[in-house]
Amino acid sequence: MTPNDTEAQLHALFVRGLEGDAAAYHECLRRIGAHLRAWLGRKLFGWPDDVEDLVQDCLLAMHLQRHTYQPAQPLTAWVHAIARHKLIDLLRAKSAREALHEELDDELPVFAASDTQARETRRDLDGLLASLPERHRLPIVHVKLEGRSVAEAARLTGMSEAAVKVGIHRGIKALASRLAAREIAT
């Protein structure tokens, strides 16, 4: 079977699924899942335990975002775009977790800073965060300050994972603008 045949079959199944054919939709997800297992297995060769979790994340994202699929476009390109984004999210999370386990050097200047300076910094940060709307502030606090995952922050805030990511991005962008404005003012 050529890649074009596979694309045509998957596309037909997916479109039938979007039209309400549950059996076609199930078969499409089964085939895409098998394809993603192989593709992600090659990408995550050193982390086989993460492959199945990532496949399930991709299939769930596809299901939740199926309304964004444009039937005139290749289905496999849309699927791979979702899988690439999920893979990047996983690699970022792994990198962040590994950074948390690095040993600290007691000679770093950060340990020489006074408690007063830390309190002032925290006060300034709290003030900046307070200036943000809740939809931006809470995702930043949960993910960036408390170290929670995007999924955990979504559960805590009642937002979707995509909304949490957007909230973080827009919140950090707003904070950067406010800090830049402060620099210009001083």
UniProtKB/TrEMBL annotation:
Q: Which domain of life is it from?
A: Bacteria
Q: Name one GO biological process term.
A: DNA-templated transcription initiation
Q: Which keywords appear in this protein's UniProt record, sorted alphabetically?
A: DNA-binding, Sigma factor, Transcription, Transcription regulation
Q: Which Gene3D superfamilies match?
A: 1.10.1740.10, Winged helix-like DNA-binding domain superfamily/Winged helix DNA-binding domain
Positions the record marks as coiled coil are: none
Q: For the RNA polymerase sigma factor 70 region 4 type domain, which residue ranges apply?
A: 123-175
Q: Which residues form the RNA polymerase sigma-70 region domain?
A: 40-95
State if DNA-binding is listed as a keyword: yes
Q: GO molecular function, one example?
A: DNA binding
Protein family membership: Belongs to the sigma-70 factor family. ECF subfamily.
What PANTHER family does the entry give? ECF RNA POLYMERASE SIGMA FACTOR SIGD, RNA POLYMERASE ECF-TYPE SIGMA FACTO
Name of this chain's protein: Sigma-70 family RNA polymerase sigma factor
